[in-house]
Write a structure and sequence with these properties.
6-stranded mixed β-sheet, two-stranded antiparallel sheet, alpha/beta, 286 residues, elongated
Length: 286
């Protein structure tokens, strides 16, 4: 279990090693192709040292990697501000957002699917501006109005992944407490529930409610996010949020356990159709 940057270095190194092997090159041959010492290639592949985006681009060219989506993802893992000529908007907030949050956004922007269990609040990708403001203000004490405005702006900008081409596929299981907790007052909550109903009808969103009647369930251990990537499953990662940081789990055993847990939660949750009715009913009674 590691913080984001360390996970990304190891994942990037493992993927570069696999690409080198697929290209039929030894680490020494790869090093000679790009004019480095073999030890530099080894350090990059084991994740023991950081790597510049320009160096990743050199290696990808040397390995003949033409897949633009894969190249873009690996450049993001290397910390590129601009991969494939496409600017990543969150770098404009480098002085405001902590590194772990920037890591999370970069993974979110490149993932093909996102599976999330939420036990306390509506997922950030589905929050209304008013709800996002109320949640952020409650979660981070002592925020100035300017900083609060910026964090809400970032939260809303993240939602563009659901409108991208292709869009992020979001599967969310919401504990009933998420719908019952009155965040920001009755008016804010009513609009947020309406937003969830709208989101549940989107083809790229699968929304399920885990009602109180389901009793105790594996999700009582806390919320989590699983990011999966269409280019390679080796880059899949589980993210656990804490008050001051995020932790990233990358081992295949961890991914298997959390994937099985999410599948179990989906089985015990209401169907998407029944969940839509449940949310609409909750909104009507709010």
């Amino acid at each position: 279990m590691q913080h984001g940057p360390a996970v990304r270095r190891r994942k990037l190194g493992a993927e570069l090693r696999a690409l080198r092997t697929s290209a039929g090159l030894t680490s020494g041959q790869a090093a000679r192709l790009v004019g480095w010492h073999q030890s530099k290639v080894s350090r990059i592949e084991t994740g023991t040292s950081g790597v510049k985006p320009a160096d990743v681009r050199l290696l990808l060219d040397a390995y003949g990697v033409a897949d633009s989506q894969l190249r873009d993802l690996l450049m993001v893992l290397a910390g590129a501000d601009d991969s494939g000529g496409r600017h990543h908007w969150w770098h404009a907030y480098r002085g405001v957002l902590p590194p772990t949050y920037r890591d999370f956004i970069s993974l979110e922007s490149q993932a093909g699917t996102m599976r999330t269990l939420e036990t306390t609040v509506v997922p950030g990708l589905l929050q209304t501006p008013e709800y996002a403001r109320a949640v952020t203000k409650a979660a981070v004490e002592g925020l100035s109005e300017e900083r609060l405005d910026t964090l809400v702006e970032v939260r809303l900008a993240r939602q563009d992944v659901l409108r991208a081409d292709p869009p992020l596929k979001l599967s969310a299981v919401l504990d009933e407490a998420v719908l019952r907790r009155e965040v920001g007052g009755p008016g804010v909550m009513a609009r947020q529930l309406e937003r969830l109903v709208e989101a549940a009808r989107l083809p790229q969103v699968r929304l399920q409610v885990l009602p109180f009647t389901a009793g105790a369930h594996i999700g009582v251990n806390g919320p989590f996010v699983i990011f999966s990537f269409s280019s390679t499953s080796d880059l899949d990662v589980v993210v656990l949020d804490h008050l001051t940081s995020s932790l990233y789990l990358e081992r295949k055993e961890d991914l298997r356990v959390y994937s099985e847990a999410f599948n179990t939660l989906q089985i015990h949750a209401l169907s998407p159709e029944d969940s839509l009715d449940f949310i609409a009913g909750t909104a009507a009674g709010a």
